[in-house]
Amino acid sequence: MSDLDYGQRATALSAEEKLALFERLSGNDAPATPATGAITRQSRAGHTFPLSFSQQRLWFLEQFDPDTTLYSIPMAYVFAGHLDAAALARALTALVARHETLRTTFVALDGDVPQQVIAPPRAVALPIIDLRTLAAAPREAEALRLVRQEAARPFNLATGPLLRLHLLRLADDEHILLLSLHHIISDGWSNGVLLRELTTLYHTFAAGATEAQAALPDLPIQYADFAVWQREWLQGAVLEKQLAYWRGKLADIPVLQLPTDRPRPVIQTVSGAAYSRQLSPALSEQLTALGRAEKGTLYMVLLAAFDVLLARYSGQDDIAVGSAIANRNRADIENLIGFFVNTLVLRADLSGNPTFREVLRRVRQTALEAYANQDFPFEQLVEELQTVRDLSGNPLFQVMLTLQNAPTGDTPNADLTITPLDIEIRTSKFDLTVYVIQTPNGLLLDAEYKSDLFDEATIARMLAHMEVILTAAVANPDQPIATMPLLTAPERQQLLRDWNATQATVPTDRTIHQIIAEQAARTPNAVAVQDSASTLTYRELNERANQLARYLTQHGVGPDQPVGLCVNRSTEMLVAMLGILKAGGAYVPLDPAYPEERLAFMVVDAELALLVTQTATAQTLPAFTGQRLVLEDAWPTISQLEASDAPTAVLPSHLAYIIYTSGSTGVPKGVQIPHATVVNFLATMAQRPGMTAQDVGLALTSISFDIAGLEIYLPLTVGARVVVVSREVATDASELARVISDTGVTLLQATPATWRGLLDSGWHGSAALKMLCGGEALSRDLANSLLAQGGSLWNMYGPTETTIWSTIDQITSTEGPILIGRPIANTQVYILDP
Questions:
Q1: What are the CA-CA distances from residue 657 to residues 345, 366, 437 (Å)?
Q2: Which candidate, 662, 672, 653, places its Cα nearest to that of 802?
């Protein structure tokens, strides 16, 4: 795979840029020594010449993969009207005679030193393939097949020819000229020279001129002369000065981390595709005007916008973009066909949230410096910088931006029109290359991208976002880049309105314990909760909770009063939780495993007046001056109280629990959660991922974490069974796997760490299992491993402050990014900052 951008199109250094370059101040910012000295015509004795630096790099790459078509330049032109095929053949012969590079091959002599071998001029054969006998549809299909077939044929650099020609005759007045060149003899600028001179020669011959009459102005030098001159000039002080610039500019260059639709292959391929987006003429003119106003160029404006786009996508503020520059900075080489293009790395500093105008200023400075040092060969630069090679990507940069402003052929004629035919691109050398093409209808953004990494929809969205940034740039260049708009109008509607249209009818007029009590009335004898030693039916659970609630009420517990809860994981834990809720209290979980100083802080910060505990856990609690209820000691009294549901003053707006998190500063903070938000959450989860009375849920999370609310309350609100496991089982993957199997668990929520532990223990899932993953980022490899277990997989996300999980997404594909999904019912989600 090449380290270079040898695409067919490159940015030419325009008159604007040349003027800006030489207007720069002297001193440290002065441009490097320009390419000086006349290029003289060399003796043709022997007919062999050294390769230019660009050619040499490409020649070496071809030795590693001689059958590649990555460096082929397939072109096709539609001739509409009367075509004189003989005149076209004569024009092609004259063109090949005029440009030595079109009859050059490359042979290794004197060991492995490649040389240019220039063949003498000869008549060019133009094979004609007649398709006129075919019907319209088959004819078009066959023409397309032949175009693709020609594009897929490799070249042999040693034997040639490196220019292949075919003429497809579709009708008497319709032809397609196929031209295939190897990149080692041509580039994007050259293609314009070729078409311009070919059409001039053709029209002259078609008018009856002789070869002598059709001659174009002489070319004083040829590409081989340039190659000799380049090697003599680009050495010593000139070479060292440019190398010093690039060493300083590209030190510690970062790798661009664009989000991709699929993981990057270990060894990159060249599989590619293309997508285009047209900008309006008005916007195109405004962009040119903005560049002019800032003493820059259109390309600089485009590059600044592209840098902003990449920064917004990647979250990075140090952006490196490749640029294929035509490198035609001498008048005597502008009309030559040959491989002059070089690759520059334009590194942008977007730190400090600058305005777009400031970004443009920084980009202009970088570009001018790069143009002043544009002669240093890119491949040699890669070697000099000793870049660490990674087979999965390119060194120094992964994306390119090129403005195609090279001259094109002027083809108008009353009897014949010539238009280029797009050839489908199926390769891409880089992750993403955006060619900006100047057309009569405005700028065309033409993206070439790796199909291993991106879907077409992603690239389409990216180009739309670039247009939004460009539009914003001309409207207000003084806007900070972090607040420049990125989304299109439909996307804003989708993100802010459509995806947040989550209105749903849920029973938020009831409390958690009321819903569970209603379920107990419907299925009193169904098992509600079990642990390793005991089982409670819905009737037993509800009645015990009612008795505890009456006891707590007698001891002063009422709505919104915090009640400490420090118990072991068992069926009695659920009795205690529901009892506190029924009394109107908000339980504050005090994990027995927490350090004493943390528990002491929570007791004081929550202003607890009552602690509910057990004999085994009471000794872990800090000193406490309030009431301490030890369940085993008080239960003989509690069990004598009325077990029916009592009238309650608890409202959905009252607190259900207070969960202490570590807080963003490291100081624990209590998050207060009301009944209504929990009920709303449970109603959503009952639908997605879904739960019915036939399900079995596993409660393995400490109630000091809010996600325990899903494990406990979701099954109980739908009539399902809850299996509570001890802390010891929850932290032993093998034991946990056994319990899951023995109890028939069908809903299991866990962190990625717990899921990995289960998989490592040899656990296997089932088709009935709903797997919920949250608490940490779910990786693609873990997601795929879980999908392989059968069942359904759901990714959950949300902070404690928004009540357990805020968003949910079902993972069904083994490819693409893992998403956090859409908001739950009656909530909205907005992305506010990085």
A1: 57, 57, 61
A2: 672
Measured CA to CA in angstroms, residue 494 lies from 488, 577, 819, 825, 828 at distances of 10, 40, 16, 17, 12
Structure letter (DSSP) for residue 427: B
At a CB cut-off of 8 Å and minimum separation 6, what does 139 contact?
Answer: 131, 132, 170
Note whether 184 and 163 are within 8 A (CB): no
* b/e 329-358 (16+ beta carbons within 10 angstroms → b): bbeebebbbbbbbbbbbbbbebeeebbbbb
Here the tokens at position 166 are 């075919």
pLDDT score of 31 = 39
The pLDDT value given to residue 36:
61
Sign of CA dihedral 710, 711, 715, 717: negative
Assign 32 a pLDDT band (cuts: 50, 70, 90): very low
In three-state secondary structure terms, 424 is coil
Taking the C-alpha atoms of residue 298 and residue 474, their distance in angstroms, rounded to an integer, is 12
Residue-wise pLDDT for 420-461, tens only, equals 888 877 788 899 999 999 999 999 999 999 999 999 999 999
Taking the CA atoms of residue 158, residue 163, residue 164 and residue 167 in that order, the dihedral angle to the nearest 10 degrees is: -170
**Using CA atoms, how far apart are residues 620 and 593, in angstroms rounded to an integer?**
8
| Two tokens, residue 733 | 């993957």
Instruction: Let me know: does 447 contact 459? Beta carbons within 8 Å.
Output: yes
Q: Which residues have a Cβ under 8 Å from the Cβ of 765 and sit 6 or more positions away?
A: 771, 786, 789, 790, 791
Q: Percentage of the chain surpassing pLDDT 70?
A: 93
Query: Among candidates 242, 225, 238, which has minimal Cα distance to 100?
Result: 225
* pLDDT value of position 662: 79
Residue by residue, DSSP assigns 224-265 as HHHHHHHHHHSSHHHHHHHHHHHHHHTTTPPPP----SSPPP
Nearest to 184 by CA among 227, 245, 135, 129: 227
Residue 74's DSSP bridge partners are 180
Q: What is the C-alpha to C-alpha distance for residues 584 and 136, in angstroms, rounded to an integer?
A: 81
What are 278's two structure tokens? 């047209």
pLDDT (0 to 100) of residue 393: 66
Q: For 518-529, what is the mean pLDDT?
A: 98
Judged on CB neighbours under 10 Å (0-12, 13-18, 19+), 825 is middle
Cβ contact 345:250 at 8 Å: yes
Assess contact for 417 and 411: CB atoms under 8 A: yes
Asked if 724 and 529 count as a contact pair (C-beta separation under 8 A), the reply is: yes
Tell me: pLDDT of 647 over 90: no
pLDDT at 2: 33
Phi, psi angle pair for 809, to nearest 5°: -145, 135
R_g over Cα of the chain:
37
Query: Residue 27: is its pLDDT beyond 50?
Result: no
pLDDT of 405 over the 70 cut: no
Is the pTM higher than 0.70?
yes
> What are the start-end ranges of the E strands in 484-639?
527-530, 535-537, 562-566, 586-589, 610-613, 627-630
23 pLDDT exceeds 50?
no
Residue 436's pLDDT is: 96
- B/e letters for 2-29, b = 16+ CB within 10 Å, e = fewer, are bbbbbbbbbbbbeebbeebbeeeeeeee
Distance CA 39, CA 47 (A): 18
What residue type is 25 in one-letter code?
L
Q: Which two tokens stand for residue 508?
A: 């938020």
Torsion of the alpha carbons at 52, 56, 57 and 62, rounded to the nearest 10: 140
Q: Output the six-digit token pair for 53.
A: 């630096």
DSSP state of 493: I
H helix count then E strand count, the chain: 25, 29
